[in-house]
Amino acid sequence: MVFESLANRLQDTFNRLRGKGKLSESDVKEAMREVRLALLEADVNFKVVKDFVEKVRERAIGQEVLQSLTPGQHVIKIVNDELTELMGGSQAKLNISNKPPTVIMMVGLQGAGKTTHTGKLAKLLQKEKKKPLLVACDIYRPAAIKQLQVLGEQLQVPVFSLGDQVSPVEIARKGLEHAISYGHDYVLIDTAGRLHIDETLMDELRNIKEAVQPSEILLVVDAMTGQVAVEVAETFNNTLDVTGTILTKLDGDTRGGAALSIRAVTGTPIKYVGTGEKIDAIEPFHPDRMASRILGMGDVLTLIEKAQASIDQDKAMDLERKMRNADFTLEDFLDQLSQVKNLGPLDQILGMLPGMNKVKGMQNMNVDDKQINRIEAIIQSMTPAERREPKLIDSSRRKRIAKGSGMTVQDVNRLLKQFEEMQKMMKQFSGMAKKMKGKKGKK
Ligand code: GDP
């Protein structure tokens, strides 16, 4: 998980402060030394670290102390504020042209995730009932045009291409004309990247920019490359006046330094982050929520938004009623598992819950989507009657289910046992709830 080790170190530091009734200057100094080391280790740009620590120290020492907070909590609040500020303060939304279509140019080095994120962005726009057009201007990388066309087909978003024999500037210009005559409100231009920045590439991008006058030039950078990402961002920004960054591969094994440095070094806001290879693995970037995740306070808002977008509300209500009446079956359980899977990879979801990385054993627990798949396979190998009435499942049926799902009889036993306990708990809760209702009614 991104920021995992940074988050752990900062939280350990703050846990030591939290309990203290009074903070001495040396307590603050010691804490700041640890914050500094933690940030440097997370690969945050050293100048950014220096400024950051200085700001926090100044505020922490010479400060009005809020009455509702202990001094320790107060330092945490300052760090939280400053982290948020460092990443841009508030959410930076897409610039929209007041004369549609809004043209968005996607730029970046090869392999950063430009084409993938052109698709992801189109999907987000589509969800908002917009009509994007994708324009294929990467004529150099073999298969880039095809990749965009496949994405377009998958999303049912049209892709404008003139093959690889026409100049990218011409393709961009014609693409824009096409969008205007077909009533598209967004034009997403996928441009070429190189393995390294070079002048020819920059010239071409400058020419495309001039030809289509984009409202938004989004630089796509790979967070895994750490400080290199920050340098790349600076160079692109100097030539093109980039309007926003998309930081990709934040799901990978990155220490997160780029996320914390890019805005401060280039002055360009991060607008989105990419969190996986799938087409919906993209999130609008909220500096405050990210700071909260880093400090172990979770990001419940993003989790709720994800849940609202991907969970079927009617089903959820139905489930709630069944749980209340304790007639929850294995069939419902299966349904629920597939809904949880829709939210995204489990470890990302858990990372959004407050304090989750502090729950004993959670850090090392390999929460693994495969486990869900195994449970699903077992339930799917049961007959509908068995799913409703697990008592039917005797030993010969257990053998059959194990065989059908490719699991062992022990696996099946374990699942049935867990389910039985779950049902017991629900019965207890529903009994309690009914009693409480009864009491209320008498009043
Ligand atoms: P381009 O050369 O900049 O257009 O890069 P692509 O869009 O082709 O992406 C390069 C590789 O990175 C592909 O294998 C993508 O699946 C992968 N990729 C892109 N974005 C992400 C992301 O957010 N997370 C992960 N894990 N992989 C990504």
Automatic annotation (TrEMBL):
SMART domains in the cross-refs: AAA, SRP54, SRP54_N
Keywords assigned: Cytoplasm, GTP-binding, Hydrolase, Nucleotide-binding, Ribonucleoprotein, RNA-binding, Signal recognition particle
Organism: Tumebacillus lacus
The protein's enzyme class: hydrolase
Assembly notes: Part of the signal recognition particle protein translocation system, which is composed of SRP and FtsY.
Coiled-coil ranges (or none): none
UniProt-listed CDD domains: SRP_G (cd18539)
Key word Glycosyltransferase present: no
UniProt name for this protein: Signal recognition particle protein
Annotated binding of GTP, by residue: 108-115, 190-194, 248-251
Chain's role: Involved in targeting and insertion of nascent membrane proteins into the cytoplasmic membrane. Binds to the hydrophobic signal sequence of the ribosome-nascent chain (RNC) as it emerges from the ribosomes. The SRP-RNC complex is then targeted to the cytoplasmic membrane where it interacts with the SRP receptor FtsY.
UniProt keyword Transferase present: no
Domain of life of the organism encoding this protein: Bacteria
